[in-house]
Amino acid sequence: MKEKIAMPRTILTAIITGGNSGIGFATVKKLAAKDYRVILASRNQDASRRAIESIRTEQPDAQVETMPLDLASFDSVREFVSAFQGRGYPLHLLINNTGGSISGKEASFTADGF
Question: What confidence tens digit (pLDDT) does each residue in 34-67 have?
């Protein structure tokens, strides 16, 4: 009988926008519980760090980290992509959970004119 060789388990990586509150936060918790490496991509790094601390109180071994990303800025998007690629992680799952709203009566524009 042949001996079975244990193969190393692949760690799946997910990026989620809007993962520091609401449905996004619940999604991050579920993915972390399933042993995903989860990247919280957000403008508010303090809120993301608090979300990560909360997750780690329940799941101390959770592989959750935060990276800055402002989707209203193409420069920020490019910086995020470069930083993510620099970490050398594969990307298995991308969850675009960010919402937006227009405050007041007039529409506003991004720094890039959109």
Answer: 999 999 999 999 999 999 999 999 999 999 999 9
For 15-95, CATH gives 3.40.50.720
49-56 long-range contacts, CB within 8 A, separation 24+: 50/20, 51/19, 51/20, 51/21, 51/25, 55/28, 55/29
Structure tokens at 60: 């101390």
Give the per-residue pLDDT at 113.
78
Q: Bridge-partner residues for 93, per DSSP?
A: 14
